[in-house]
Amino acid sequence: MKTKILFPLLISFFSPGIFFSQEKDEFFHEIEVAYTFVNNDKWRGTVTTNWKHIYDEIGWRRWGGDIYISRKIKSIAIESGITVNYTFDKDIVNYLDVRPWLGLRSDLQLSERTFLMQKFKIESRNLYFDESYRNEHLLRSRYLLSLKYNLFKDQENWKLNPTTEWYFIDRQVDAERFVNSVEFGIRIIKVFENENELAFGYKIESFKKTNLSENSGRGHILVLEYGF
Predict the structure, then answer these.
(1) Which of 13, 22, 55, 69 is a Cys-bridge partner for 218, taking CB atoms 3.0 to 4.6 Å apart?
(2) How many CB atoms lie within 10 A of CB 54?
(3) How far apart (Å, rounded) are the C-alpha atoms in residues 120 and 183?
(4) Pairing relation of β-strands 217-227 and 24-39?
(5) Could you list the pLDDT tens digit for every one of the 228 residues in the chain?
(6) What is the pTM assigned to this prediction?
(7) CA 214, 61, 56: angle at the middle one, nearest 5?
(8) φ, ψ for residue 111 (rounded to 5)?
């Protein structure tokens, strides 16, 4: 892909509105480990676990896991999985989010050095709270764009990975503290000889206003990921 085409694509992943239109900033770090237990011409299956923590609050941390299976049909794949998040929070006690989901993924090789992945998924979110709030069920759809670009010609061991994801909900749950509306990220990926990957990155999330978050805001996340 020529540079004059690549840079507009990169810019499209980052909207200036998310940096300047929000009111409050939160700072997190997130660690993720992913294991691909099958990956062939027809099937892909992955198990992921992650941990997310907010810097200025001892009481907020989230443990999560996801497992999915994907049926490949040429450049398209049909995916299904379940995501479980358990959040410790000073305002929300014993917060559990169980999300069975169904998705459609598209993989496209744009050039020798550029790869584009798109994913659309619908989640059935089941949110469980303590006696302070009633349990909730809602649907949320998500659309992800992920671009991988080989930083060095004729090599695939270092990649630049900008991403953006939009979240669409049928209604808002006031007892949820951080409600995503859009997320942008960028990673540097190191691919090892055994095809394992180590990624360092930064994400910024835009949050909606809720009863537990008096102001809308944005989250800044430092990311460390390992896949094998």
Answers:
(1) 22
(2) 19
(3) 14
(4) parallel
(5) 444 545 555 555 555 455 555 468 889 999 999 999 999 999 999 999 999 999 877 778 999 999 999 999 988 999 999 999 999 877 677 789 999 999 999 999 999 899 999 999 999 999 998 877 788 899 999 999 999 999 998 888 999 999 999 999 877 777 777 777 899 999 999 999 999 999 999 999 988 776 666 556 889 999 999 999
(6) 0.85
(7) 60
(8) -160, -175
| CA separation, residue 144 to residues 93, 134, 164 (Å) | 30, 31, 6
Retrieve residue 114's tokens: 């550029």
> What residue has token string 């700072």?
27
Counted residue by residue, the chain has a size of 228
H/E stretch holding 8: helix 3-12
**Residue 219: other Cβ atoms inside 10 A:** 21
User: What is the full DSSP assignment across 19-71?
Assistant: HHS-SEEEEEEEEEEEEEEEESSSEEEEEEEEEEEETT-TT-EEEEEEEEEEE
